[in-house]
Amino acid sequence: MTFKQLQVFLAIADTHSFSKGGETVSLAQSTASQHIRALEDELGARLFDRSASHVTLTEAGRLFYEHAARICGQFGEAITAVRRFQGLEQATLRVGASTIPAACLIPDLLGSFSAAQPGVGLEVIQGDTREVIRLLQDEAIELAVVGGQYDADTICFQEVCAERIVLVALPGQFSEAVVTVRQLQEMPLLLREPGSGTRLAVDGALQKGGLDLRSMRVVAQLGSSEALRRAVLSGAGCAFLSALAVGRELADGTLTAVGIEGIEISRSFYLAWRRGKSLSPAAEVFMEAVRQMKKY
């Protein structure tokens, strides 16, 4: 039994004619008849009752029709699925992103990506780094752009760019542009939650500088860079934030960056994908766009 035989069978059943059914699948009537004869011989059952003016399905033919239609439908769906995977038709690329990539990096590359893949829509799912990696492990997303590395056994990470993390405060909150560790310990401090890439970088840098967070005045842990920014602006304390997240405020003087003696904090952003998983062409184009991002 061949797929062509199923196509011919369905065309004849739908048109009630061997000649019209053959035309539908670009075959002569005689060739269409040969396909049906071979199909009936294989099944050991007549599929059509033929008369001079009309062709109708037998009981066996009606039973077979349901299954043949389902098979041909699934065949078409399979072709569509592969074409979508190849980016040849409308498709959606699901990408996970931690806070800063979602707010700053991905919007910057949307123009080039959309031009390269006009048929592909981008769906960005935001969370902290740990949450996004979990989505990747569950295959809820195909790619991720995150600010830290977790579970490298099942996830591949590729560093794509880096940025500075700065201590920001209201103007005049610190009397000097550079403060000592002791001065920092005396200030109310706002932090991101432990699962974020920013927090991971801050914790590592402070520990290298001999600072223990337990000795500091941590007044709040907040779940986003935007929440931290607003809290600092409200006068709640100082905070470590991505230079990208507060670029406007630093430029207009609404906030000021404060240096810490002996401590500099930077972090990398990473492309992440499941180890051993084949990626769609749309995902490959997106990855290349991310790789072209400059160092911030």
Provide a brief overview of the structure.
This protein has 296 residues and is of the alpha/beta class. It has helices at residues 3-15, 18-24, 29-43, 59-85, 99-116, 129-137, 181-185, 197-208, 225-233, 247-252, 281-291; strands at 48-50, 55-57, 91-97, 120-126, 143-146, 155-169, 178-179, 188-192, 217-222, 238-242, 256-260, 265-274. Helix 5 links the parallel strand 3 and strand 4 (120-126).
Write the layout of secondary structure elements.
Blueprint: H1 3-15, H2 18-24, H3 29-43, E1 48-50, E2 55-57, H4 59-85, E3 91-97, H5 99-116, E4 120-126, H6 129-137, E5 143-146, E6 155-169, E7 178-179, H7 181-185, E8 188-192, H8 197-208, E9 217-222, H9 225-233, E10 238-242, H10 247-252, E11 256-260, E12 265-274, H11 281-291
Parallel strand pairs: 3-4, 3-5, 7-11, 8-9, 8-10
Antiparallel strand pairs: 1-2, 5-12, 6-10, 6-11, 6-12
Helix pairs in contact: 1-2, 1-3, 1-4, 2-3, 5-11
